[in-house]
Amino acid sequence: MKKFSSLMLIALLFAACQSKESSGTDTAKADTTKYPYTLKKVSNWEMNSDTKNLMAATTLIKTFENLDTTNMSKVLADSVWFMLDGYKFKGTKPQFLKEIQMEFGKMKSFKIQMEDMESVISKDKSEEWVSLWYHQISTTKDGKSDTVSLFNDIKLKNGKVEGLSEYVQHPMKK
What we know:
The chain is an alpha+beta fold. The chain has helices at residues 2-17, 52-65, 69-75, 93-104; strands at 45-47, 76-84, 87-92, 107-122, 128-140, 145-157, 160-169.
């Protein structure tokens, strides 16, 4: 009888330690927090494990650093929009490249120090974005230098950059 009880106890312990199968329904609870603001649209973002968007976004920033419109053209969509510090553009890729080439003509150099990056995709796969955090040291041809901290949100579609929103933090004045 003792052997039977011991075997029964071991079997019960073994059964209790087994993981339960999921019933196929998502058991995550909806967020019922009463925030002070209501979103018009909740996109439900997830991390994007495909590295092509990170590659396109960081290549775009590298082309800025290298003052290189030839390689920049390779990562841009046919129509683009850019919102930078004091600059807005919406139009075709050739129009943007012509404008940015004029700006590059004023610059001696850019130096980028990348801090962090993240690629996300909406759960319905309708939107893809890459966020970049970095420091930029720019020097104009007349020798003026400026250092800023930047945050970029870069919108991509089919591996091409459609747009960029840039947020700049200038250093505090002493």
